[in-house]
Design brief:
The protein has 429 residues and is α+β, with helices and mostly antiparallel strands. 29% of the residues lie in helices and 25% in strands. The longest helix is centred in the middle third of the chain and has 16 residues. The chain is globular, with a radius of gyration of 26 Å.
């Protein structure tokens, strides 16, 4: 019998993943622990190794589609099953490629040579009741959806499973005043009745979402739906930091350290988070959880979006340690070589739009955190110093924060703590 390969739990806070690219095709032999598929989550791209050795029979999920953790994504004929059937291990199983929808650019998914399961079996699976994942249960609680209503949703997952998309579709229809959906009937053998998406007007171009772009869109939409954002911005005179960096960057470079402004930003933020632990927290229905570790995620631009690797225990690192960590993470992020550990566990995020010339930013809080810091471009401006006009390198420092957790009475002192650190900087390693 074929064995199912399932989407693994890629991290404690990850409930689903998107198939970015299959590395094997049906009929290929796969060794145990050999890379099988690239999976994109809202945190990172990872290569998933095969948990079994054998012949890949069928791909159950095409590239670009998202599935919940634990969902079957492929079938493999293992060596043990082959031996029991008296077939040689390298035998090629029969399969029939199944074409995707007309005009689709997704990879074809192999259809099994065996006939599909009858509709009655699918119906029986649905009648057994929806299997509710932790993510679906949490969404239902957040949107006050009773269990009785949840059970009537027409689940589009395997065996009638209710998915996140099913819940969000119901929430949208409820907000629009539409009645709750009736329980779905067993699928009919006829072709689906949904009309194809309208083609864009002449001259327009549809740009397909990459898995990472889709993940970013989902996370940012979730943040704006769930988190009441508030903002604070101050001006910082970066003269002391700029002068020290200019005087020392060549010596640091000879030591193999690239001394960027971001390293200073991370060190200042780490000190401020220790002084204001409420900023290093996250919201729960039971209360605010104060994080013990100071793990600072730093946004890094890549070709098709943004990825946020994490500097763990940043408050325990020297400036040189932070600079080396930043250089290593940036190189590996742009080479798609980050591991899941590199992006897990962030407690606070720093984004640096100043490298693109931004002078005033209002970033979106990462779900599961309390705040995000924006460091904008350092620009020479005329300012008043001791009743005289002076030219100084000035930067806007902004904080977007979850207004459920704290108020401006915390946000502004937090920013001013960093301002004092920058303007009084005297150097260090």
């Amino acid at each position: 019998m074929p064995v199912e390969i399932k989407l693994p739990q890629l991290g404690e806070s990850i409930h689903e993943g998107t198939i970015a690219r299959w590395l094997k095709k049906p009929g290929d032999r796969v060794e145990k622990y050999e890379p099988l598929v690239e999976i994109t989550t809202d945190k990172v791209n990872v290569e998933m190794p095969s948990p079994y050795a054998g012949i890949l029979l069928q791909l159950l999920v095409p590239e670009g589609e998202t599935r919940l953790v634990g969902s079957a994504i492929a079938l493999i004929e293992t060596e043990a099953a082959e031996a029991a059937a008296g077939r040689p291990a390298a035998a090629q199983p029969a399969y029939t490629p199944a074409r995707g929808p007309a005009g689709s650019d997704e990879s074809p998914v192999a259809a099994p040579a065996r006939p599909p399961a009858p509709a009655a079996a699918v119906s029986a699976a649905r009648e057994a009741g929806p299997r509710l994942s932790p993510l679906v249960q949490r969404l239902a609680r957040e949107h006050s959806i009773p269990l009785a209503v949840l059970e009537t949703l027409p689940g589009t997952g395997a065996g009638g499973r209710v998915t996140k998309e099913d819940v969000l579709k119901y929430v949208a229809s409820r907000a629009a005043g539409a009645p709750a959906p009736a329980p779905a009937a067993a699928p009919a053998p006829a072709a689906p009745a949904t009309a194809p998406a309208a083609a864009p007007p002449a001259g327009d171009e549809l740009v397909k979402l990459t898995p990472i772009r889709r993940a970013i869109a989902q996370r940012m939409a979730q943040s704006k739906r769930e988190i009441p954002h508030a903002y604070g911005v101050i001006e910082v005179d970066m003269s002391a930091v700029a002068a020290w960096r200019e005087a020392n960057k060549e010596a640091w470079r000879r030591d193999g350290v690239s001394l960027t402004y971001t390293a200073f930003f991370v060190q200042a933020a780490a000190e401020a988070l220790r002084a204001f632990p409420i900023v290093n927290s996250h919201w729960t229905d039971e209360g605010v959880v104060l994080r013990k570790a100071v793990n600072i995620g730093v946004g890094i631009a890549i070709d098709d979006g943004l990825i946020v690797p994490v500097i763990h225990n940043a408050d325990q690192l020297s400036l040189a340690g932070i600079a080396r960590a930043l250089d290593d993470l940036t190189r590996r992020a742009r080479a798609s070589r980050l591991s899941l550990q590199d992006v897990e566990g962030g407690t606070f995020t720093l984004t640096n739009p100043g490298v693109f010339g931004s002078i005033w930013s209002m970033p979106i809080v990462v779900p599961g955190q309390a705040a995000i810091l924006a460091t904008d471009a350092i620009v020479k401006r005329a300012v008043v110093r001791d009743d005289a006009i002076a030219i100084r390198p000035i930067m806007h420092l902004g904080l977007s924060f979850d207004h459920r957790i704290f108020d401006g009475a915390v946000a502004m002192p937090f920013l001013n703590h960093m301002k004092t650190w920058f303007e009084g900087y005297r150097g260090g390693r």
